Automatic annotation (TrEMBL), chains A, B:
Molecular-function GO terms, alphabetical: oxidoreductase activity, acting on the CH-CH group of donors, NAD or NADP as acceptor
Organism: Quercus rubra (Northern red oak)
Keyword Magnesium: no
Xref: SMART domains: PKS_ER
PANTHER family, A to Z: OS06G0602900 PROTEIN, PROSTAGLANDIN REDUCTASE
Lineage: Eukaryota, Viridiplantae, Streptophyta, Embryophyta, Tracheophyta
Protein name as catalogued: Enoyl reductase (ER) domain-containing protein
Length: 346, 346
């Protein structure tokens, strides 16, 4: 059988904020069968993850010095890989059969043709919706869990600040911190998000950073006794303000710096004298390094979701043609919770 | 008996580089006896330590937000405390007797009147010159030892970069790293210092940072395979360049940021995307937190000095009136090794 596969590509490298004009929806005829001897797996994409880090892979090569980004750069006019959930339609790989539900690195498209070596696993839904496995029980969730518990080494009662707190990673960090018995304040970019953090997700407090003229004093107001843990999703001025408000032996997990992704001029220049005198630890990390806690993460998080101690926050759009706007929206704060694009019914 | 005590004070707060005109040499009549019932200890200062951090205590209070600095601010027109070696001339404290050699927090002056609670210990010279106990076997040495071994957690064969490498802390870090079997490159501000690092102290390589127009490429030249450990004494542009050249899972010990002490405009804005993707750890620390390794530090360092595996690098000036210029010189790179001012013969 042959289908028409539609998928997203980039036409040029990106500097600054992403725009619709940088992307193109391409169309190809795709045979849903695997040649004898090939171990390719062809999947029908159901849900794909929309993540800020993709922009770093789309930048002009000279702009980035990190070998990991260079290694995994998005190639112009080619498919863009992404975390997501899919259904096998044809398989030359003995590990997968037609109709298997799988999770792993698929593409921003309707179908994915996956070569051997692609990260792909059979999906056990453990009774949760498929979308959960794209984010909450996927890499965003693991980033939150590992970043908070393994990197920050939190203790009950500690004061935790989370930026981009209504986002995919941020909202879960705040909820994990509440489960542990921390005092948690988050910041986000709209009134509605701030309300949601306080009312629905149980944050002790929250504020709209766009309404603050002086972030250092804002944090002083929300943390009169200082911050023990800053979970950084944004970098820039917020990181500077957090460093100024950290307590002695404070820990900063640098999960991401979205404010700097589209504008290198926004780089944080934290007061290193504070870093020395307060013995602050600033630690970058990647979720993928923490597969050793993956089972703990899934079981702990599943339990909290089942008992209602944690809430799932998702933001779902439909249609491959809407992937670019979903992605662009991340940098404008359009999303509330994990941004997912639905491509097909199961 | 009464003597004339001469000591250094500050006349105003300092912003920017320190100048002679900010200091004043004061004179007082001092009775070398202790009132009955008082537990004051009066000491004759022999050698005092000259340290960059003192400038942070001399700044206009609003310029610094770190409570530790505020708490220990130098007060205008009063004595300035410092690490040093002295001899007891009169004591109301049963732990000390006349003629005891002591080490601890004395003053930038000829005599010190030390109240109960002042950090002060009897000195066992273990066969080394008194000056060693001011720096090499004092707080500078402990800063180097703890910062390198405890904070950086080095492994044999790792590639280590040290800034202000001919300074008090820096030269010892490089020497410890060589003892462990690391590859060590240092930077310093003159040709003479660079030669000394390579010829006398056994650094694998060294360079004059003032002759480099592009620090990022300079580090790439000296570390074609990247830096595993950066021991930061200077901050600013050097920290940025180091972050760009760090290897995956690299560690940065932030011992101090002297380039930023006299000019907050020189604050480092490291590429946090590199911090994330390379999982870099940036850790501020203070030597005083590591008294638990003090005995190891003394025994290891004494052994290395005795066997000649490590060299003592000291820079000694005489006379209380020369304390300001010795201090000012730190920020101009005048000193080679531990800067000490001698105040009296033993
Ligand atoms: N280290 C890892 O392994 C790992 C894994 C996943 C994600 N990450 C990182 O974690 C961070 C959050 O990712 P996510 O997937 O959870 O995305 P997300 O938070 O769901 O979406 C991005 C959010 O960031 C906020 N934002 C956008 N531009 C901003 C700016 N200039 N300043 C402040 N906030 C801004 C927006 O919310 P507002 O309305 O609040 O502005 C937006 O909703 C990103 O930096 C990402 O790269 C790291
Ligand atoms: N965390 C702790 O517990 C602790 C303890 C002791 C010291 N420290 C810190 O460690 C650092 C070194 O202290 P130290 O006692 O060993 O002093 P030092 O290195 O003996 O003296 C300072 C040296 O720094 C260099 N320097 C001055 N201004 C500079 C600039 N703008 N850029 C680059 N280099 C500059 C100069 O050498 P060049 O000729 O190379 O420029 C100068 O000789 C300082 O930042 C200090 O505050 C921290």
């Amino acid at each position: 059988m042959e289908v028409t596969n539609r998928y997203i590509t980039t036409k040029t490298h990106i500097d600054g904020a992403p725009k619709e004009s940088l992307f193109e929806l391409k169309t190809e005829a795709l045979a849903l069968s695997v040649e004898p001897g090939s171990n390719v797996v062809i999947v029908k994409n159901l849900y794909v993850s929309i993540d800020p880090y993709q922009i770093n892979r789309m930048k002009t090569p000279g702009e980035v010095s990190h070998h990991l980004i260079l290694l995994y750069q998005v190639r112009l006019w080619l498919v863009i890989d992404t975390y997501g959930v899919a259904k096998v339609v044809a398989s030359g790989n003995p590990n997968f059969e037609k109709d298997d539900l799988v999770v792993g690195l698929i593409t921003w498209g309707e179908y994915s043709v996956l070569k051997e070596g692609t990260i792909l696993n059979k999906l056990d839904t453990v009774g949760f919706p498929l979308t959960y496995h794209v984010g909450i029980l996927g890499l965003s969730g693991l980033a939150a869990y590992a970043g908070f518990f393994e990197v920050c080494k939190p203790k009950k009662g500690e004061k935790v600040f989370v930026s981009a707190a209504s986002g995919s990673v941020g909202n879960m960090v705040g909820q994990y911190a509440k489960q542990l018995g921390c005092y948690v304040v988050g910041c986000a970019g709209t009134k509605q998000k701030v309300e949601l953090l306080k009312e629905k997700l149980g944050f002790d407090d929250a504020f709209n950073y766009k309404e603050e003229t002086d972030l250092q004093s804002a944090l002083k107001r929300y943390f009169p006794d200082g911050i023990d843990i800053y979970f950084d999703n944004v970098g820039g001025e917020m990181l500077e303000a957090a460093v100024d408000n950290m307590n002695t032996f404070g820990r900063i997990a640098v999960c991401g710096v979205i404010a700097e992704y589209t504008d290198a001029g926004k780089r944080a220049a934290p007061d290193m004298l504070n870093v020395v005198y307060k013995r602050i630890r600033i630690q970058g990390y990647l979720a993928v390094d923490y597969l050793n806690v993956y089972e703990d993460f899934i079981s702990t998080t599943s339990d909290h979701l089942r008992t209602g101690n944690m809430q799932a926050l998702e933001d779902i759009t439909s249609g491959v043609e809407n992937i670019p706007s979903a992605f662009i929206g991340l940098f404008r704060g359009d999303n509330i919770g994990k941004k997912v694009v639905k491509l097909a019914d199961e």
